[in-house]
Amino acid sequence: METLVGSRDDLYPTCRKLIEFNGEKVIVGMLRNGELYAVADACPHHGASIFMGAEVNNCLVCPWHFWHIDVRTGDVAGWGRNRPPRYELTERDGNVYLSMANQFS
Ligand code: FES
Asked: If you average pLDDT over every residue of the chain, what do you get?
């Protein structure tokens, strides 16, 4: 299952979109370095929205208690937790699509 995020041309460094996907809110955005990412809009600590969090070193900073969530992996930076990526972005025909990632790759 996949869903259309939008045109690749509409995405630019630091932009973020909130997508409803598979019953969850997912942030799709672009880091300052131009890398696209998709991460759940739920902090692994107590579930706060990280959509408005500052971008620091490829992480979004949770506004509640300032945990740093690495948007490329979903890991909490500095905690050594390995969480497999949960979402995947695919570019095709000028558009970006969001899908579930393989949990075991
Ligand atoms: S809810 Fe995000 S750090 Fe506590």
From this structure: 90
As a whole number of angstroms, the distance between CA 78 and CA 105 comes to 22
State in Å, rounded, how far the first CA of the chain is from the last one.
Answer: 18
Name the phi and psi angles at 10, rounded to 5. -85, -5
> Given this model, what pLDDT does residue 44 score?
86
pLDDT of residue 4: 97
Domains of the chain with bracketed CATH? 2-100 (2.102.10.10)
Write the single-letter amino acid at 12. Answer: Y
Pocket residues: Cβ below 6 A from ligand 1: 43, 45-46, 48, 62, 64-65, 67
Of 39, 43, 81, the residue with max ligand 1 atoms within 8 A of its CB, to mutate for a pocket test, comes to 43
Amino acid at 2: E
Radius of gyration of the chain measured on its C-alpha atoms: 13
Q: Tell me what pLDDT residue 84 has.
A: 54
Using 70 as the pLDDT threshold, list the residues of the chain that sit under it: 78-85, 102-105
